[in-house]
């Protein structure tokens, strides 16, 4: 069995901005193009599912850090209309969709991908999903005019850490797109070096408290000092909740099952 798990808003936004100039000629151009993509998946996957973000204010991340994703603006009105039309069209095609207050699409994708008893292919350009990569979990990353297959081996060769360590790197470097603070003054290169050397943020700060950093890393001590709380908060904000409540009747995800 092969399941494609789609980050709904990620894909819809990409199609919306790619087709924006043609909207005057055809108001439905975004939805039509996206549905052609969906129809193509029916040849490659036995199961298809779309996942949508719950309201940001209901999530645990918002409760922990109200500024989480605070820099993001609301949906343009035409994009919202496309969202409504797309959800209706997916329902007509019998495609499983999931949205749950308190959780983001990433959480639902993570919970399903790690539990599905077959191969899971996450479709999204969101790098946060990289942390889920495993022998049975892959990510199809859309780029301009092409798609890249990301698996565990490609990730390690690209980033120099294991997929599950990606949240530790992000905890140190932060993420401006999600408004995750990270440790001030620690960039991607330094964050990667520290995670390669100390495995996790928790272990790193155990070493910092013991004043036992490797000699080559002592120059980072001042930047790290006093920042453990913000680093651990940033890690919690970055970590996908693979224990989110999900539908585990896998037949519900089979393409067309909702038509009968």
Q: What's the SSE blueprint?
A:
Layout: E1 2-7, H1 8-18, H2 29-41, E2 47-52, H3 60-64, H4 77-92, E3 96-99, H5 105-115, E4 119-123, E5 137-143, E6 146-150, H6 152-159, H7 166-173, H8 188-198, H9 201-209, H10 221-224, H11 228-238
Parallel strand pairs: 1-2, 1-4, 2-3, 4-5
Antiparallel strand pairs: 5-6
Helix pairs in contact: 1-2, 2-4, 7-8, 7-11, 8-9
Protein described:
This protein is α/β, with parallel strands linked by helices and 260 residues long. It has two domains: 2-157 and 250-259, Rossmann fold (3-Layer(aba) Sandwich), CATH 3.40.50; 163-238, 5' to 3' exonuclease, C-terminal subdomain (DNA polymerase, domain 1, Orthogonal Bundle). The chain contains eleven helices and six strands. It has helices at residues 8-18, 29-41, 60-64, 77-92, 105-115, 152-159, 166-173, 188-198, 201-209, 221-224, 228-238; strands at 2-7, 47-52, 96-99, 119-123, 137-143, 146-150. It has a six-stranded mixed beta sheet, with helices on both faces. The mean pLDDT is 94.
Quick structural overview:
By secondary structure, the protein is an alpha/beta fold. It has helices at residues 8-18, 29-41, 60-64, 77-92, 105-115, 152-159, 166-173, 188-198, 201-209, 221-224, 228-238; strands spanning 2-7, 47-52, 96-99, 119-123, 137-143, 146-150. The protein folds into two domains: 2-157 and 250-259, Rossmann fold, CATH 3.40.50; 163-238, Orthogonal Bundle (DNA polymerase, domain 1).
